[in-house]
TrEMBL record:
Belongs to the TMEM86 family. The chain crosses the membrane at residues 76-100, 121-138, 144-164, 176-198. It comes from the Bacteria. One of its GO terms (cellular component) is membrane. Residues 1-23 form the signal peptide. The keyword Transmembrane applies. It is a multi-pass membrane protein. GO terms for molecular function: hydrolase activity. It is found in: Membrane. Pfam families: YhhN. The keyword Transmembrane applies. This is YhhN-like protein.
Length: 233
């Protein structure tokens, strides 16, 4: 049902804009409204993906749906505050990164990732960003350090594999997926900086986190759909 898929895609865009704006607003009213907007984000995107005729022909069909499902669990968990919800959200998003990685590995470039530019850049980013972030998390709350380090490793691996797909896949699919991985990396880097490095980030910081996160999930879904190839006439 392409019409329903398009309508849900537009609804996701509207929710993403609303939640991005609300994330930067202070006060309990914005927080209460986000219980609706943020909770609806991933189900709406997942619905648009599932109803698109290209989804079932995509080699990234199941991994994308799993990533979206775990993303929803992470979104809901992070609506809470404190160490427990943060660990639950990080665990859910970590499972989502594993799902994306498994999908990307099945359609990966045959050349070894470790020798590619994507692999080298990801390794460098992990050293200069992931490790310091984990150190900052451990200083804030010792129990968070190992989890943040593990998640940073999964996130950078996902971004690397997203940029290392089989060249036989459609170029627009590879481009959207690579941009999605990069946006996810940017979003969680901003989140980590705001949580563990910056002492008083501006309110707009949270909006930047949500803008890059929603863009990432949209691009990963779009890349998976485009990986199905052109629709038969």
């Amino acid at each position: 049902m392409p019409g329903a898929a398009s309508a849900l895609r537009l609804a996701f865009g509207a929710l993403a804009i609303a939640d991005t704006v609300l994330a930067g607003l202070p006060g309990p009213q914005a927080e209460r409204t986000r219980l609706v907007t943020k909770t609806l984000l991933m189900p709406t995107l997942a619905g648009s993906f599932a109803l698109d005729p290209r989804a079932r022909r995509s080699p990234l069909h199941r991994s994308t749906q799993a990533g979206q499902g775990f993303g929803w669990l992470g979104d809901v968990a992070l609506l809470g505050s404190g160490t427990g919800p943060f660990l639950a959200g990080m665990g859910a998003f970590g499972a989502g990164q594993v799902a994306y990685i498994r999908g990307f590995r099945r359609v990966a470039n045959p050349n070894p990732l470790r020798r590619s530019a994507a692999g080298k850049v990801a390794a460098g980013l992990f050293v200069v960003s992931g490790i310091p972030m984990a150190w900052g998390a451990a200083r804030a709350e010792p129990v968070l350090g190992p989890g943040v380090l593990a998640y940073a490793g999964l996130l950078t691996a996902m971004a690397a594999y997203a940029a290392h797909l089989d060249p036989n896949l459609p170029p627009d699919a590879r481009r959207a997926t690579a941009l999605g991985g990069l946006a996810f990396l940017a979003s969680d880097t901003l989140l980590g900086l705001g949580q563990f490095v910056l002492t008083d980030p501006p309110p707009a910081w949270n909006s930047a986190v949500m803008a890059t996160y929603t863009a990432a999930q949209f691009l990963l879904a779009d890349g998976a759909l485009r990986a199905a190839g052109p629709t038969a006439a």
